[in-house]
Specification:
about 120 residues, de novo design (two linked rop proteins), 4 helices
Length: about 120
């Protein structure tokens, strides 16, 4: 399967673009550098791990990278919540980007569960 055509990869890539733009906003407009760096790291790591999973040498390797991508979505949602609750991002922006992260995490969780079943 061409990873660039997978829905998980496409959504994660588009999400990473949103995260980079959010990082630019937070650093340039809000002068927030610590939390935004954590958000940038975890939010862009999701797609990178999906891309890496495509090169996995085994089903276990694939599942491991997809699990990391899933965990990165959870971490990203944490940073987003913290940024919202500390008044760095507004509720409307938070809801939109958090919803995207939630959708990606559900897709990844489904992929992980499906690959577990193929091992049994």
């Amino acid at each position: 399967m061409d990873i660039n055509k997978s829905i998980a990869y496409q959504k994660a890539y588009q999400f990473a673009i949103r995260i980079v733009k959010a990082y630019k906003y937070l650093t340039e407009e809000k002068k927030e550098y610590v939390l935004s760096k954590q958000l940038l790291r975890s939010g862009t790591s999701i797609g990178a791990n999906i891309a890496e999973a495509n090169g996995g040498i085994s089903q276990a390797d694939f599942r491991s990278k997809m699990s990391i991508a899933y965990k990165e979505t959870l971490e990203t949602k944490y940073w987003l919540s913290l940024l919202k609750d500390t008044d760095y991002i507004e509720e409307k922006a938070f809801q939109s980007i958090h919803q995207d992260a939630d959708e990606i995490s559900k897709i990844l969780f489904s992929i992980i569960k499906r690959t577990e079943k193929t091992d049994n």
